[in-house]
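Lab notebook, bench 4. The sequencing result for the construct came back, and we need a structural model before the next group meeting so we can plan mutations. Quick request posted to the team channel:

Model the 3D structure of this chain.
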Amino acid sequence: MTGKPCDECENMKIALDTLGCKVNQAEAEFLARQLAEVGHSLVSPVDEVDVYILNTCTVTHTADSKSRHLLRVAHRRNPDALLVVTGCYAQRVPQELSQIDGVSLVVGNDEKPHLLRLLQESGCLSSLTSIQEDLALNYHLALKTRAFIKIQDGCSSFCSYCIVPLVRGREYSLPVEQAVSEVSHRVDDGYKEVVLTGTEIGSYNHNGVDLKGLLENILAETDVTRLRLSSLQPQEIGSELIGLWRDKRLCPHFHLSLQSGSGAVLKRMKRRYCLSDYQEAVALIRALVPDAAITTDIIVGFPGETEKEFEESYQLCRQLQFARIHVFSYSRRSGTEAARLPHQISAQVRKERSQKMLALAEESAQKFRRQFLGAIMPVLWEQQSVDGVWSGLTGNYIKAYTRSDEDLTNKLLPLKVV
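Done. Here's the predicted structure in token form:
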């Protein structure tokens, strides 16, 4: 293993990149906090670094390609730096990543929670135990708008196209007390918004407490200003759960993965709901939380998807008027059932369908945003661009922009939408 000898490992400059879902973001944030608290400096990947850590995704072949590209760029930029790879790609094919020039350590999801200890035991990082308050404080000041907390991991659904159950393992739910404590700590750190995330947070259950019970505990026992959920399944939507959104601290934003608007394709995907379930969930949300943003994921070009089935999917997405549609071209993942299905769709057809769905996604997003022209909405301001424009998010996930000479970082302020 390459890297600096142990006597040079204190106060190292460490860059942390992450790809993929909000679960990865939560895990990267946890690791960053650990590194800052033992005295290491967190820097940008474009800076001179001693250690570069990449938290990978492997949901699509594009995600794999991005990971390899980032590692090669990091090695060219800092040829003497220690390159560490973790995450889902590292879990799936560690040997493939270990062969990339400069990569010294590959750590799968199983060992990701212990990455700091592994680095210390390998001699790559010092085993400092005293918190250096100034560095820890600087970390919190730099990252105090939205905090990601992983409350659940693993998936047992085994949808036919999805590699996630194979790289995330058995389902696990964070104890209620620990989840509430994590939220309280992030509030104390200065975060105004907390995002609860997981591979399948709707399946959260710890000692009989489900997601609804967890939310009730967090709302009752913390002073969190805004609480957002990362993703739910339509079969998990019920009036009792959605009724909690009477508390305005819950962000009116629901991400419900549709994946296909064709019933036949949903069956081949082995999703655990039918189209009527999905439509009823959307109707319930809009009845109880009228200003809510409903966002979704769509896969185009699934094996065997006919023109008629794609058109069914397209028309349902148009009908449901999503606030955002994340469009994915089907990516064949070795080890999944769908990879063995006949009638794989050509790259050209997948590209054409993706472009058509993306155009609808933009049209739907604009239509959703226009509903709020003239409205006054609270915005959590996050950062300022080089040309002086501030950006932030409304509770229902609209990206807002303004100009101001004031420092708006982490301020929740009303904005008239124009």
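Confidence is low (pLDDT under 50) at residues 1-8, 128-142.
Will bring this to the meeting.
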